[in-house]
Write a structure and sequence with these properties.
about 170 residues; alpha+beta; 3-stranded antiparallel sheet; 4 helices; 10 strands; about 30% strand
Length: about 170
């Protein structure tokens, strides 16, 4: 995760250069069919940014990985549209609705990045079950994708939540 003070489109080039510096010279980052970043050797990559932090996650070939970071004060109207009744009930019971919305949204974004689909899937396909842990950490499971698991943490100093979704290693 990299903290920055300006927002703009330059983060993509910076992230791509950072990723490229960690890869063998013959492996490159390019856009997949759906516009998501992919590695030429089949390895996995997920990128995200907010107005204060950016993040990049790399995985081995064939791994499903997704990373999302959201500012806790961001307003997203789509939460209602993409959340199931169970998720909305969890949100209603959570102590801080705004933070809860960002936790759910960050998990959903990380999930669709791991799957490489974006928000094209039906609401039921991206349903999640969130379990709070200790000290601002959360674990998520995905009923339609039991091979995936999610972990998130709130960083109150940066004012953001970061979620990672990946396939389970056995």
């Amino acid at each position: 995760m990299i903290q920055h003070t300006t927002q703009g489109t330059g983060w993509r080039d910076t992230a791509r250069r950072c990723v490229q510096a960690q890869l063998p010279p013959d492996v490159t980052v390019h856009r997949g069919v759906l516009g998501n970043p992919v590695l030429s050797d089949g390895g996995s990559v997920s990128m995200t940014y907010t107005r204060v932090v950016s993040g990049v996650l790399l995985g081995e070939a064939g791994r499903l990985i997704g990373l999302d970071i959201e500012q806790l004060d961001r307003k997203i109207r789509a939460v209602q549209r993409y959340c199931s009744e169970d998720e909305l009930a969890w949100l209603d019971a959570y102590s801080n609705r705004q933070q809860g919305s960002m936790i759910l949204w960050s998990f959903k974004e990380a999930l669709v990045k791991a799957l490489g689909t974006g928000l094209r899937l039906p609401k039921a396909a991206i349903e999640i079950a969130v379990s709070p842990q200790t000290k601002g950490a959360f674990v998520a499971t995905f009923p339609m994708f039991p091979c995936l698991q999610g972990h998130a943490v709130m960083d109150n100093d940066l004012g953001c939540v970061m979620a990672i979704v990946s396939d389970q290693v056995t």
